[in-house]
């Protein structure tokens, strides 16, 4: 193995050995906590030990119900808004917000999917961990949730993962082909990868590292066996990724812990923009001194156990009452085996005259505990719901007549778990900071188009470099606030419309736009409504945008016979306003636009002539008959 020097007196072998010891320290430290988490997983999957003979041990879906009900109330999407640092950066902030919405979409980075996964895992562990991965060929940013079995952290690093001296992830699988591609891209060390592939040449299965038995048992709770079915058909390595601080410098290392072999070691600043760790974590409970904390299921699990015992003891009670033991007089009942139940069975009894059956037979009755069991189960259910926020209303049982009660119920669950949990909101601010840093490093150098005020515009790296603030909003909070704001706007707008002296001082176009926005029309549709000149022809503008793309790629687009002056204007404006164009690209764009001037003028004149001919024709045509009274046109939506 080659020994490289990254800084004076620091060898790659030293970094590897330190990283291995740090991972081992975390694995040992977290073992007891993972044992408790495993109990919560078993409760969620309704996994119980085999019952004793003649006894019941039926699981209850209480833990599952708690988690899924909680998840259904905190599944709203997170919205990140970049705010201007100063007035001059307002447009840049809006465009970066639009870029976030584009990159976080389900068919791209799926940020909300990862957020839901982290919330689900946090119910068991007490913390959610997100990892933002980015690349440039092609450009992408993807957010993923990190399993608590895979997360590595400093045991005494405190609540904030950013403050830990080391942090990382186990079980990052790389195929042989991915490693070779990584070498070609300059990402992995060529000699280290070559040596490593020789070591694992025959390994074509996936196996976990760390507390692997706990992770395997999670599958066994669903009656799955990944140990016996781990063939993947290609050479694959299991790596650990770690960011570690040595001599006050942060390093990135990707290594196979089992084979004690690294394939990449580099200063963090060379791997991640601005030295940001890709890992962001948040806790469900405030713990100022420890990264690990109690999880929501930790306090639910004892109640689950009590309710499970109550139910099974009641089933045992019912079985005892169905098969109660019997006292019998051996002198009067000739054959005791006849006392066992048989359909239409007969029992021989010797009784003297006047003796009753009570003198030969007595049943040992078991008391009925059903009533007290039902009462206790109901009490436990109500008490847990009140303490944890998962009430019948949250589960959809309660009758709720007003919107305010609905939001209050949803807010209660959110307050107790995550939506306005300060650590949770702060974690998404950190994700947004990392996203913006990744934009600056990995975004295409030109023509990364975002939707801005209904139109497509290019986002530049100069705009990304501006200082900005970040605001995190949940869609539930936004919906509640939107309702309040909409009601206030409705009152103000009604006042203006009902008073002519106020209406005379307003901008009619702005009022129309506000009415349409309250009707939930998109900005692009609003532009089409208010465009009297017909410049907002989305198809024609799309054709102009495609012509611009083709010219920048060195192609020569065909002349557009349907072009109008707005088509020419779009291409010309792009050429004039885009700062990163070469001289040749500028000349090509302007030349292409000027070639359409004659076509555009001809089309504009024909359109005017056609409109002029239509007007006299409309004046002589009879009115179209309608059935019933004429409808009254009113704007839809809440004003």
Quick description:
The chain is α+β, with helices and mostly antiparallel strands and 639 residues long.
Mean pLDDT: 80
Quickly give the structural class: alpha+beta
The largest sheet has its strands arranged as: 6-7-8-9-10
Low-confidence stretches: 396-410, 626-639
What count of helical segments does DSSP give? 21
> How helix-rich are the residues, as a percent range?
40-55%
Question: How big is the Rg?
Answer: 35 Å
Largest sheet: 5 strands, antiparallel
Report how far apart the termini are. Answer: 71 Å
Beta-strand segment tally:
16
Shape: extended
What report would you give on this structure?
With 639 residues, the protein is α+β, with helices and mostly antiparallel strands. It is 47% helix and 15% strand. It contains 21 helices and 16 strands. It has helices spanning 12-44, 62-73, 90-103, 111-125, 176-184, 190-199, 212-220, 268-271, 296-322, 370-388, 403-417, 422-442, 461-464, 475-498, 500-503, 508-518, 523-530, 538-552, 565-577, 583-594, 597-620, and strands at residues 5-7, 10-11, 78-84, 127-136, 139-145, 151-153, 166-175, 236-246, 249-256, 261-267, 279-283, 326-328, 361-363, 448-452, 455-459, 468-474. The strands form six sheets. A five-stranded antiparallel beta sheet has the order 6-7-8-9-10. A three-stranded antiparallel beta sheet has the order 5-4-11. A hairpin with a 2-residue loop joins strand 1 (5-7) and strand 2. Helix 18 crosses helix 19 and helix 19 (565-577) runs antiparallel to helix 20.
